[in-house]
Design a protein that fits this description.
With 250 residues, the protein is an alpha+beta fold. It is built from 7 helices and 13 strands. The structure holds guanosine-5'-diphosphate and manganese (II) ion (MN) (2 copies). Guanosine-5'-diphosphate binds next to helix 2 and strand 8.
Length: 250
């Protein structure tokens, strides 16, 4: 298996045809998977935003005031409002804003970025990254994974995760298959789109590299059942239930 970046992509602007920009720069083969940073999908979809366009609610004002108190740094209530508008629920309001996005991904600040966003204050995640992936996949004729760099609980450091996917299942279901002892696997569902996203993120990097699209070639899903479950349902999520009850105290 190899993973290589698509060379020479320009700064992406609203309305750009990402599929065409990719297809001009790489000859895709059957079996390839294209992984693309949500940043450029968002730019193409016009998801840049200005702080001034967010009118803070009382809740946003109080979230920002509390964060300012905690950190000793000024916190902009308009940013808190942007996070609220992008979220279905805030699992934590302090000391960080931990959000469930409207499409089900749990991440700090609802994945709103302030880096690699020339000419605007903010970049919101795509509204429905799996729909974005589906449009790209239909044009390119290969599976597409939309990635974001994200922290994960219990671990320092950030990594690439899938926020959307199309053209392949999210996970390989090993249940019912056997291990080397002949023992039946009863819980193993491998979130392959996250693993592909992490692979791609190794190549894209996080800085000014300008390499948001990665082709993974020579990897096979194989002969397994597939599953499209990636974002844990609230009623099936012990950690979310625990966080809802937890209150931060400085
Ligand atoms: P995220 O992980 O999706 O939040 O995106 P990052 O900000 O980490 O950027 C991922 C990669 O895409 C880095 O190599 C950036 O330099 C690159 N990148 C970001 N925006 C653009 C763009 O508009 N055009 C190009 N060519 N590269 C970009
Ligand atoms: Mn990001
Ligand atoms: Mn990144």
């Amino acid at each position: 298996m190899e993973a290589f970046s698509v060379p020479g992509l320009p700064e992406i602007r609203e309305g750009d045809d990402l599929a065409a920009l990719l297809a001009e720069r790489v000859d895709l083969e059957d079996g390839d998977v294209v992984c693309i940073a949500s940043t450029v999908v968002s730019k193409a979809e016009g998801r840049k935003a200005e702080l001034a366009s967010f009118d803070p609610s009382e809740r946003a004002e109080s979230i920002a005031a509390r964060l300012s108190d905690l950190t000793g740094e000024p916190k902009d209530p308009r940013f808190a409002q942007a996070v609220l508008e992008e979220s279905e629920e805030l699992l934590l309001e302090a000391p960080i804003l931990l959000a469930v996005t409207r499409f089900g991904h749990v991440t700090v600040n609802a994945g709103i970025d302030r880096s690699n966003v020339p000419g605007a204050d903010l970049l919101l995640l795509p509204e429905a990254p799996s729909d974005s992936a589906a449009r790209l996949s239909a044009e390119l004729g290969v599976p597409v994974v939309v990635t974001d760099t994200s922290g994960r609980p219990f671990r320092y450091g950030q990594r690439g995760v899938a926020v959307g996917w199309a053209g392949m299942p999210a996970a390989r279901d090993w249940r019912g298959e056997t291990d080397r002892d002949g023992r039946e696997l009863d819980v193993t569902v491998q979130a392959v789109v996250d693993e592909l996203a992490a692979t791609a993120n190794l190549v894209t990097g996080e800085g000014s590299g300008g390499t948001p699209a990665v082709v993974v070639r020579g990897w096979e899903f194989g002969d397994h059942a597939g599953s499209d479950e990636l974002f844990r349902a609230a009623e099936d999520d012990l950690i979310r239930a625990a966080l809802r009850k937890w209150e931060f105290s400085a």
